[in-house]
Amino acid sequence: MTYTFDDLKKDVAEGRIDTVLACLVDMQGRLMGKRFQAQYFVESAYEETHSCNYLLATDMEMETVSGYKSTSWAAGYGDYTMKPDLATLRKLPWLEGTALVLCDVLDHHTHAEVPHSPRAILKKQVKRLEALGLKAFMASELEFFLFDQSFDDARESGYRDLRLASGYNEDYHIFQTTKEEDVMRALRNGLQGACIPVENSKGEASPGQEEINVRYAEALTMADRHSIIKNATKEIAWQRGKSVTFLAKWNYTAAGSSSHIHQSLWSLDGKEAKFFDKDAKYGMSELMRNYVAGLLAHASEITYFLAPYINSYKRFVAGTFAPTKAIWSKDNRTAGYRLCGEGTKGIRIECRVGGSDLNPYLAMAALLAAGIAGIEEKLELEAPFVGDAYGGKDAREIPKTLRGATAALTESKMLREAFGDDVIDHYVRAAEWEQEEYDRRITDWEVARGFERA
């Protein structure tokens, strides 16, 4: 199921496509770019276009944040070159006459990939794996909440008194999810039509909470799919007067929203499951044991790329199916890393740490870097945890705050070697800025708690 540049040219010539979205993925995992008149795109812009280089040095509010080495007011905020990757080209059925292509971000002068761009970071780890004769397949399970109000109405209300799309826990609940089919059917069919093979959608553990699952793919392809899925979900909800949120923890009383990432390594031709050894305990090959040991040994260091915001850490609450311990266990949803597919070629490790707010390229790259470190160092895997990991004494903990995760990121020798010092320093600055912005804000909780009693 592919859509080629020749297909696009034919659709443009015959009047079916009149707009092409050329998008880069920013630090927050959002699509940023331009809407091209399709005829111009197929004649010229398919080769390259340009964007301001502040797009990879901003926060959620698109602030021109100080302290970045890569760009600044002093440097003049010049251009990046956006190079369309035509292998990502697809039609978007939910937008009339529209196609989309993702772009690599290149230095305007040298045309080398910008090293801190999310796609480049993941591509670098994929190449490291290829040098070892390996290929990564990944899948992300993406959760979100669906509301009856539009985005405009939600914003104008100050995000208070929002009405969820359903009134009670809808985990696997068919009648409840029938009420939401207007959005979810459109999302499933839209993604399928956009060359993203959908497996299913389901209700999740809180009222109004949804999950969308698509077929696993090579790491870069899966990250591309993930970023498009999030944008599609927002657009399709908006078209129907609804809103969604991918906040990791939108409400104190609700479950958090996750983005579990399943990982397995295969031969370069994709035919041999390198994680599987039928004669080994649980079916885990030595390679898999080394890889998982790497994930655990570097769990704190990679947490920032799985949980990049202040809010991300509000999700790590015992008894909510979000993990609090960075340990592995067999088919155990209380653990940060869960073994799935035991004893089969489908054996894989599921990282349950990441929230729905993560950037898929950065998260997958960090997981691969940690796993590669485990392989290269032949790390020994600890015994699996058994029982309720929330109560596990002396078990390795996930950092409890963004401040703690930032410190671990800053000091990570492994990630500095894998990504480069400049890349790590770039994202450390992003984390610091997020913390600085939060630290100087006054929250509703503080005012309600202390207005009269302080």
Automatic annotation (TrEMBL):
Cofactor(s) for this UniProt protein: Mg(2+)
Residue stretches making up the GS catalytic domain: 118-454
SUPFAM superfamilies: Glutamine synthetase, N-terminal domain (SSF54368), Glutamine synthetase/guanido kinase (SSF55931)
Example of a GO MF term: ATP binding
Key words, A-Z: ATP-binding, Ligase, Nucleotide-binding
SMART domains: Gln-synt_C (SM01230)
GO BP, sorted A to Z: biogenic amine catabolic process; biogenic amine metabolic process; glutamine biosynthetic process
Family: Belongs to the glutamine synthetase family.
Protein name according to UniProt: Glutamine synthetase
Species name: Shinella kummerowiae
